[in-house]
Amino acid sequence: MKPLPLPVRLAAGLAVTAVEQARKLPQQLVGLPVTVVSEALQLSMRVQQRVTELAIKGDDVLAVLRPAEQEPEWATFDEDFDETGADADAPAGDPWAEEERALAAEPPAVLPDYDGLSLSQLRARLRALSVDDLEQLLAHERTHAARPEFTGMLTRRIANLRSGG
């Protein structure tokens, strides 16, 4: 028997392939949303990585133009402490008495609920406070919890207000 012409054989093969793909379609449709979401997330992560890389390069370039802070207030160094490990600038005294004084102290009158505020809650209230109010909070923070992020934020806000910001 003589083989059929090539175009007829191609058409028959194409028809069978179309039927096979049509039978697989319901299974592929179930996984389609997952595939689309997965590819969208991958693209989003690639974009975020690229943005971060560009920001890091920008930071490197701009670091040349902006001088680094000499010694941040929150930074401590070995030279700041004596041989016993005590703060060299701290007044000598009974540590138990100092702790009792700190615990017995009243909350600052400016913000009576200060000790219960989170960092973001405090940040939201800073604009309404004067330099004197901020200094009172800073003194209270230093004698009580002495949390670096709180003292740093209060110190920066005081400096900004004094410089006219």
UniProtKB/TrEMBL annotation:
Taxonomically, the superkingdom here is Bacteria
Q: Which residues form the DUF8129 domain?
A: 111-163
Which InterPro entries does the record associate with it? DUF8129, LipDrop-assoc
Q: What is this protein called?
A: Lipid droplet-associated protein
Gene source species: Saccharothrix syringae (Nocardiopsis syringae)
Q: What is the lineage of its organism?
A: Bacteria, Bacillati, Actinomycetota, Actinomycetes, Pseudonocardiales
